[in-house]
Amino acid sequence: MSNKKRKTYEEINDILYPKSIAVVGTNNVIGSVPYDIFENILHDRFKGILYPVSPSEKNVSSIKSYKYVVDIEDDVDMAILVFPSSVAHLAMEQIGKKGIKSMVIISAGFKEVGAKGLEKEKKIKEIADKYGISFIGPNCLGIINTDPKCHLNASFARAMPEEGNIAFISQSGALCTAVLDYADARHIGFSKFISFGNKADVDEIDLLYYLKDDPKTKVILMYLEEVTNGKALMEVAKKVIAETGKPILAIKSGKTAEGASAAASHTGSLAGSDEIIDAAFKQAGIIRCNNLEEMFDYAKAFAYQSLPKSKNIAIITNAGGPGVLATDRAINSGLSLGKFEEGTTKILKKSLPAAANIKNPVDVIGDARADRYNIAISAAIKDKNIDGINVILTPQSMTDIEAIAKDIVKVVGQSDKPIYTSFMGDTDVAAGIDILQKNNVPHYVLPENMVKSMAATFKFNKRLKEISEFEIKQFSDVDKEKATKILDEAIAKNKTYLPEEEAVKVLEAYNFPVLPNGLANSKEEAGKIADNIKYPVVMKIISSDIIHKFDIGGVILNIKNRNEAENAYEQILKNVKKVMPEAVIKGVFVQKMVGEGQEVILGLKKDNSFGSVIMFGLGGIFVEIFKDVDFKVAPISVKEVNDMIQSIRSYPILMGARGSEKRDIKSLKETIQRLSQLAIDCPQIKELDINPLIVRNEGKGCFVADTKIML
User: Which domains are delineated in the chain?
Assistant: First the structure.
């Protein structure tokens, strides 16, 4: 995680709102990147002054050209660098000497091509730092600002997009061109469109801070190929959402779990890179999208309409089948069909045919024309029990599609409740869809995607209302100094793992519910410890050379008396020496065995980007088979602990399913919160498993039965 100095709003704004631009390295080769960028700025009505810089051209597009940027007589606000990477550093020196403080570096051939390119990238960054230049790139498509005050298309995209309130930032330049084409076909406009490429200087976090305060932006879309500073990303996302209510929709490519199989703990093997990304995005409030279509489905909903105040929606359709599909998706997505008020039902019964379904979902029947749709939508939108409407239309021979679309546009303008549409089909409904899209009414080809999008906006609005609940609990009854000393001493001795009796001491320092225990170095001592802590007990081998104790007979359970304890001590040593005769044995750990309870697992894993990640789930020997777990990035708030416990499929078991006793959820929550605090206080811990944690019946607490700490 870097300590990079963040760019100010003014530094980013100077890049996006220049009053004069020098395109450094342009030419007259039609179809080349340097030429196309210059032409786009020139012909897309940029409001400032444009200077072509080209050592080989006297003019570019009939405009006088300058051989070098230092030859320009006037001050210049920003430079667009399109020279090849081999000479980019020379051009940057001149840009710095000219006093230009803002840049976009389009040129490729930097770190994306390997070690030699990385050296070139480091060189241009050094020059930029020397002259105080802020820049976007290199290896990017460029930037677009649709604000009429600037109207800048400093990219090699084919066309300037429409003005809108959606900002799009992307690490991939190639994806940007596809996005622009997709959006253009659907009349989706943008406020800012930024390809940031290799992010050698300005990165996505800088841009998110800027867009947080950008008055032209209502929704932020983001495509990432890597997350290099997850903590900072989570921090800025939380600020954007809490301070402005702007949603952040993200696609993160590279859904892989490389490296997970090499992890030593259950937590390490389950917490793959994509699982951590999912957890972190959810925790920060970032809505992760699976693909571009889903991203823009959600974006339209957020950008064009208000957020639904409750989960109660109405579905209005002229076809029963699509209405059922939409209903199923709505319920599965966390929405519900609101029950109409008596007055609404009377209007529908009086105005619709007898064969129509006047309950929610409303079926206005296949031969419905604009009047029936208008009656149903107008009645539902005024109903106090309804906070969002989804309209489905299938084209029949008598369906006046354009009239229905126009009526929907009118109703949208008269209410603050969101209305989404799904005109199903292609050619027959095209004119109606065009009317809806041009008037910022969210439209979806499939009704399932329509209600799924409304569910996303409802859940986001619900989160906004819950922001005050994200308090982090701090425990004062912990001994950070003691835990740190144990960990540091082990690291100084080059230990990879803490022996269990030391791991238990770390947990004791943080007041975890650790069972009575002791370390024995003889059978007599084992028996004495067992007598003191009361039976039954469990005994385990302690050796830095042995990680998986069960596999070699290094654990004996349910020891009931002194004689069994002494015999168990000798049997464990015998088992271990047979399988691992060279293992250095520190002793045998004697621990109280807890009674009946539900086994769960708690874990901790240090992630290079996000820091300490906490895991919770169903425990025991089958944890990696069922994978019924959830992740959160530490520190974890009180609400997030609740969400974590309730998210696993096994949650009903903890709550007392099928007549069984409810488990002690209160003590479980506290134990997770203590682990979160330990994770933040002790970064020396690379991985940690508490497996199992025995959660007993309500009011009887939970207990750590086994723990493993990797340094």
Answer: 306-467 (3.40.50.261), 516-593 (3.30.1490.20), 598-710 (3.30.470.20)
Read off the amino acid at residue 603. G
Helix and strand totals (H; E) in the chain: 24, 30
Q: Which of 164, 167, 246 is nearest to 204 (CA)?
A: 167
Nearest-angstrom CA–CA distance, 22 and 112: 26
Cα of 662 vs its chain's centroid, Å: 33
Alpha-carbon distance 317 to 359, whole Å?
Answer: 12
Q: Tokens in use for 615?
A: 């895991």
Number of C-alpha atoms within 13 angstroms, CB side, residue 454?
38
Give residue-wise pLDDT tens across range 334-370: 999 999 999 999 999 999 999 999 999 999 999 999 9
Distance spanning both ends of the chain, measured CA to CA:
19
CA distance 394 to 392: 7
3-state SS class at 565: helix
Backbone angles phi, psi at 651, to 5 degrees: -55, -40
For residue 207, count CB atoms less than 10 angstroms from its CB and return exposed for 0-12, middle for 13-18, buried for 19 or more.
buried
User: How confident is residue 269, by pLDDT bands cut at 50, 70 and 90?
Assistant: low
Q: Which residue has the tokens 């906006």?
A: 457
| Contact (CB, 8 A) for 53 and 26 | yes
Between CA 89 and CA 71 the distance in angstroms is 18
Distances (CA, A) of 470 to 281, 461, 465, 489, 640: 15, 15, 11, 35, 7
Whether the ω angle into residue 395 lies within 30 degrees of 0, i.e. cis, is no
Residue type, 548: H
Q: Which two tokens stand for residue 349?
A: 């019964």
Residue entry with tokens 């300005």: 202
Rounded CA-CA distance 591/704 in Å is 10
Q: Per the omega criterion (within 30 degrees of 0), is the bond before 138 cis?
A: yes
- The model's pTM is 0.91
In sequence order, what are the residues at sequence separation of 6 or more whose Cβ sits closer than 8 angstroms to the Cβ of residue 571?
553, 556
pLDDT digits (tens, 9 = 90+) for 288-310: 999 999 999 999 999 999 999 99
Query: At 419, is the pLDDT very low, low, confident or very high (cuts 50, 70, 90)?
Result: very high
With cut-offs at 50, 70 and 90, classify the pLDDT of residue 596: confident
Please give the distance of CA 621 from its chain centroid, rounded to a whole number: 30
What 3-state DSSP class applies to 423? strand
- Please name which of 675, 704, 674, 677 lies closest in space to residue 691, comparing C-alpha atoms: 704
Residue 587, CA distances (Å) to 51, 161, 344, 497, 547 in order: 78, 71, 77, 16, 14
How does pLDDT run across 659-691, given as a tens digit for each residue?
Answer: 788 999 999 999 999 999 999 999 999 999 998
Give helix 230-244 / helix 273-284 axis angle, nearest 10°.
20
Strands (E), 56-161: 59-60, 63-64, 78-81, 102-105, 134-136, 142-145, 152-155
Q: How many residues does the chain have?
A: 711
Rounded Cα–Cα distance for residues 680 and 217 (Å): 35
CA–CA separation, 480 and 509 (whole Å): 7
- For residue 298, which of 218, 409, 410, 411 has the smallest C-alpha distance? 218
Least reliable range by pLDDT among 49-53, 233-237, 574-578, 620-624:
620-624
**Eight-class DSSP state of 581:** T
